[in-house]
Design a protein that fits this description.
Layout (H helix, E strand, L loop, with lengths): L1 H23 L3 H21 L3 H25 L4 H4 L3 H28 L2 H6 L11 H12 L1 H22 L11 H5 L3 H4 L12
Helix pairs in contact: 1-2, 2-3
């Protein structure tokens, strides 16, 4: 138990410190590397909780795909981060207000478990014996039964975020030719092909 406690505090401390460095690092490449470190430590916490499947998914999906994609995008984009940080102070009050609201919500949620300890037993799903169900099976039953509406809502949020990213990147610029499928479909042969009869000897 002592080794598990020390491992928990080690993983938690490194994860929190790396998370702070993600938002405070001046170099965006370093921020992505600290994000990868945060994911690894979060995976270690999942292993301590007995959720090996979540730890594996966190390492494979987030570290192996998402974070590496972030790293390539940051390294490929030519962004002047000095100009980007110039407007930070004017948005600081709004950001601080949002942070205070989120902190208050976390305090309310955390305080509810202390004030009403009965709510822990009311909200928790019955835990089957470990030798009768696997980690993946238990996770699937919880996600697709008790939390199916939240799971679908998360999918809708990701869909809206994807559509928003596409709308923000597809901007109309002058001099840039774009594909217009409707024009291609309605185009006639006589509008695109011109038959010219060349007399013998009058060619180039």
């Amino acid at each position: 138990m002592i080794i598990q406690g020390l491992a928990f505090y080690l993983f938690a401390f490194v994860a929190v410190a790396a998370g702070v460095m993600v938002i405070s690092s001046r170099n965006p490449v370093h921020s992505v590397l600290f994000l990868i470190l945060t994911f690894f430590n979060a995976a270690g916490l999942f292993v301590l909780m007995g959720a090996e499947f979540l730890a594996m998914i966190l390492v494979i999906v987030y570290v192996g795909a998402v974070a590496v994609l972030f790293l390539f995008v940051v390294m490929m984009l030519d962004i002047n981060f000095v100009e980007l940080r110039e407007g930070v102070l004017q948005y600081l009050p709004i950001g601080a207000l949002v942070g205070i609201v989120l902190l208050a919500e976390l305090a309310v949620v955390g305080g509810s478990w202390v004030v009403l300890p009965v709510s822990d037993a009311m909200s928790a799903a019955p835990i089957p014996p470990i030798d009768q169900v696997t980690n993946t099976n238990a996770l699937g039953k919880l996600v697709y039964t008790h939390y199916i509406y939240l799971f679908q809502a998360a999918g809708l949020v990701l869909l809206v975020a994807m559509i928003g990213a596409i709308v923000l990147t597809l901007r109309d610029r002058e001099g840039v030719r774009r594909q217009r499928i409707s024009d291609q479909v309605t185009r006639k042969a006589e509008d695109s092909v011109e038959i010219v009869k060349v007399a013998p000897g009058s060619g180039i």
